Amino acid sequence: MEGIVFEKLNSLGALLEPLNPFKVAVLTNTTVRDIWLEEVLDSISEYEVHPIIIPDGEKYKDLETARYVWEKLIKIGFTRKSLLIGLGGGVITDIAGFVASTYMRGTLLGLIPTTLLAQVDAAIGGKTGINFHGKNMIGTFYLPNFVLIDIMTLSTLPMVEVLNGLAEVVKYAILDREVYEILTRISSPQEAIKSEELIRKSVEVKVRVVEEDLRESGKRRILNLGHTVGHAIEKLSGYKIKHGFAVSVGLVVASKLGERLYGFDSGKVYELLKKFGLPINLPFEPSKVLEAMKLDKKAWYGKIVFIIPVKIGEVVIEEVPESLVLEVLREVRE
């Protein structure tokens, strides 16, 4: 997948040259604005640039925020040949992608992910979305013109955001043996965010899958490993539990199912999650989690489908009997 570059923020101007945008809008939140916006604006000062600032938080990833951004773009005379840049974490990159894909049926789009979760997951692969009666229930597939990854932006992250992203990296470690080997050598979250090799390899795993199946009609579904339970936990918490923490518990459930069905060594997953201090216990009643899972968009034809590890580097996509799911949920709840 072209357009993903590992460079410093001050290289942004070079990425804009071939696009020759009429106008540029930079969408970010109040937190990232105070840390990185000035450096981004300085690197593209020769363009007409309009910052658009929204509040920080998952609860603002909604239709009202999208409407606010659309209206801002109209007011500044934004055209299809203008560039919308999403500067921030997964909420920002998701909203920026959604707005860019729908405004005038598609504008130029650039993403600058500043969290680990966004760098290895949310900004990669062309998925966009807003929350509407559930996680990412309204969205599109829309590939950005570029994704600029500067791992130095991770140096200002609070530890909770580092851990939030590490859960997705553990997911890649289950899907890919090379990522697993790298992650087993890393001893702390602080070491992980300094490892460009780890982040690059995680991105490569996702890109490899997405290039085979952009619209999630088949193989791309393996990237939902841990998300069947994860999205249910997020929804039940009113999105107060962070995505990565919810996925972490989802990885435990998937690993336990793999152990029951295929003899997968779930201890390998437990070991990684515990090393980084990620949650491993279900925070809600199993029956409530099961019901929430049935309403998730990943439940095709109303049936609960899991991504189940067979061994490190190999997973299967499989419908699992509710009785077994409930049994494992109860085990993880204890």
What features would you describe in this structure?
This protein has 334 residues and is α/β, with parallel strands linked by helices. The chain folds into two domains: 4-155, 3-Layer(aba) Sandwich (Rossmann fold); 159-333, Dehydroquinate synthase-like, alpha domain. 48% of the residues lie in helices and 13% in strands. It has 14 helices and eight strands. The protein has helices at 12-16, 30-43, 63-75, 90-102, 116-122, 159-175, 177-185, 189-192, 196-212, 227-236, 243-262, 267-275, 286-294, 322-333, and strands at 4-6, 24-29, 49-54, 83-88, 108-113, 146-149, 305-311, 314-319. The protein has a six-stranded parallel sheet, with helices on both faces. Strands 7-8 form a two-stranded antiparallel sheet. Strand 7 and strand 8 form a beta hairpin. It is globular. The mean pLDDT is 94. Belongs to the sugar phosphate cyclases superfamily. Dehydroquinate synthase family. It catalyses: 7-phospho-2-dehydro-3-deoxy-D-arabino-heptonate = 3-dehydroquinate + phosphate. It holds the Pfam family DHQS_C.
